[in-house]
Amino acid sequence: MSPDPTAAETVIIVSGLPRSGTSMMMRMLEAGGVPALIDNVREADEDNPRGYYEFERVKQVKTDRAWLEDAKGKVVKMVSTLLLDLPVGYAYKVVFMRRRMEEILASQRQMLVRNDKPADSVPEEKMAELYRKHLTQIEAWIARQRHLAAIYVSYNEMLANAREQVRRVNEFLGGGLDADAMLAVVDHTLHRQRKT
Questions:
Q1: What 3 state SS string does 42-101 have?
Q2: pTM score, whole prediction
Q3: How many domains are there within the chain?
Q4: Predicted confidence pLDDT, tens digits, the chain (196 residues)
Q5: Domain housing 113
Q6: Does 55 fall in a domain?
Q7: Is residue 2 one of the residues assigned to a domain?
Q8: Rounded CA separation 189/177 (Å)
Q9: CATH number of the domain that 141 lies in?
């Protein structure tokens, strides 16, 4: 498959709920040949030993959009709530990460505990309900956008059958990525909140 000729004008976004595998997908796409827009302000730690792959200005996308010009042809990470603030006038391709809800909640709880923050301020059942409602709303919103295309990738399925998920992502992004390099990034040792 030949590379997508519009790739240089497209902003690729890795999105999803926190702790859903977005950092791993950022590393995979970078390994596959897509330049990553990151600033390393948030350094790697025990919760994300390979790095967070974040770009701080993303958080101000509602008021600061100048960085989007630099994001063309690159991949940037954005938490799902911020997708709603993306301006029209750009072409976006979103790789939206999914993960079992109980694993997301367990991973977040562990991160809070590790950082000496209260881990039980919101009951998990309530948090799961809020997250599920948000996902339903954001996926419906994505489906209505003409300037934005999305593919949904399961973190759990990536670990179970990485080759198939890499094939899907590569195809979605035009087919010009180094699939073997992407596969080499998948790290099962970081799947520490397994729920079956």
A1: CCCCCCCCCCCCCCHHHHHCCCCCCHHHHHCCCEEEEEHHHHHHCCCCCEEEEEEEECCH
A2: 0.86
A3: 1
A4: 444 656 789 999 999 998 899 999 999 999 999 999 998 776 655 655 565 688 999 999 999 999 999 999 999 999 999 999 999 999 999 999 999 999 998 887 776 555 556 556 668 889 899 999 999 999 999 999 999 999 999 999 999 999 999 999 999 999 999 999 999 999 766 544 445 4
A5: 7-187
A6: yes
A7: no
A8: 24
A9: 3.40.50.300
